[in-house]
C-alpha cells in the first residue's frame, strides 16, 4: 500500500522487511552490506532512539555530534538525526559538566615583594622537583632538582642534589649564595618528609 504523498517518509521510498521499516535508496548494486544499503528507518523523537544515541555516544568516548551521526548512519537512518543527537548529547550530564564554563574569581593583590624593584633574588622562593632517573655503570640514581626562584623577576636558578636530605639541601643553598648572594627574604615550601626525619 503506497504512503500518502504528504507523509514525511514518503521521499525515502521505505519498505517493510521482517516487520522492520527500511530505507529504499538506490544502492542495490553497491558492494556493501544489506544493512548499509537499506538502513533501518527510525523516528528521532522515540525513546528507543534516544537510548541508542546515548549508548553510541558513550561507546565513542563522548565524541561530538558529527562522529556519532556518522557511526549511526551505517546501520540506521534517523529522521532529523542531527537534532535528535544534539538533544541527547546536550542533556547528557557528564558532557554538560565537562563543557560547563569555568568559574571566575578576582585574584588577590600581589605582595610587596613581587612588585617592589630590587636586586634579583633578594626575595627567593625555594622548591624541589623530581626525582630524575640517572643510570650509571653500577646502579640507577634518583637525584632531585632544587629550584631557587626570584619573586620579583621570576628568574630561576637550578641546583642538582643527589637526595632530599638536609645536608644536600644546605650544600645547594651554599652554592646558590655563592652565586647570587644571601637573599633578604626566603620563602620556603613545606620540606619533603625525608628532610624532616632525624638522621642517625
Structure summarized in a few sentences:
Helices cover 33% and strands 21% of the residues. It has 200 residues and is of the alpha/beta class. 12% of the residues are buried.
Can you offer a commentary on this structure?
The protein is of the alpha/beta class. The chain folds into two domains: 10-99, Endonuclease III, domain 1, CATH 1.10.340; 112-195, Nucleotidyltransferase, domain 5, CATH 3.30.420. Helices cover 33% and strands 21% of the residues. It is built from eight helices and ten strands. The protein has helices spanning 34-37, 47-59, 65-73, 81-91, 93-98, 112-115, 166-180, 193-196, and strands at 15-17, 20-22, 40-43, 76-79, 123-129, 134-135, 140-141, 144-150, 156-161, 185-188. It has a four-stranded mixed sheet, covered by helices on one side. Strands 1-2 form a two-stranded antiparallel sheet. The chain has a two-stranded parallel sheet with strand order 3-4. Strand 8 (144-150) and strand 9 form a beta hairpin. Helix 2 crosses helix 4 (81-91) and helix 3 (65-73) crosses helix 4.
Amino acid at each position: 500500500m503506497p504512503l500518502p504523498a504528504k507523509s514525511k517518509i514518503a521521499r525515502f521510498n521505505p519498505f517493510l522487511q521482517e516487520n522492520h521499516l527500511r530505507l529504499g535508496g538506490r544502492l542495490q548494486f553497491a558492494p556493501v552490506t544489506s544493512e548499509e544499503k537499506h538502513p533501518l528507518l527510525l523516528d528521532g523523537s522515540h525513546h528507543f532512539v534516544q537510548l541508542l544515541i546515548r549508548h553510541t555516544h558513550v561507546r565513542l568516548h563522548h565524541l561530538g555530534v558529527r562522529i556519532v551521526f556518522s557511526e549511526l548512519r551505517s546501520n540506521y537512518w534517523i529522521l532529523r538525526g542531527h537534532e535528535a543527537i544534539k538533544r541527547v548529547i546536550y542533556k547528557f550530564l557528564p558532557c554538560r559538566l565537562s563543557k560547563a564554563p569555568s568559574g571566575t574569581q578576582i585574584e588577590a593583590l600581589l605582595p610587596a615583594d613581587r612588585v617592589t624593584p630590587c636586586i634579583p633574588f633578594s626575595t627567593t622562593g625555594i622548591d624541589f622537583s623530581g626525582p630524575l632517573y640517572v643510570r650509571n655503570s653500577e646502579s640507577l640514581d634518583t637525584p632531585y632538582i632544587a629550584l631557587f626562584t626570584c619573586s620579583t623577576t621570576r628568574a630561576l636558578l637550578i641546583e642538582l642534589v643527589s637526595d632530599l636530605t638536609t645536608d644536600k639541601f644546605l650544600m645547594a643553598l651554599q652554592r646558590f649564595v655563592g652565586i647570587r648572594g644571601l637573599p633578604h627574604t626566603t620563602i620556603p615550601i613545606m620540606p619533603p618528609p625525608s628532610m624532616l626525619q632525624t638522621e642517625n
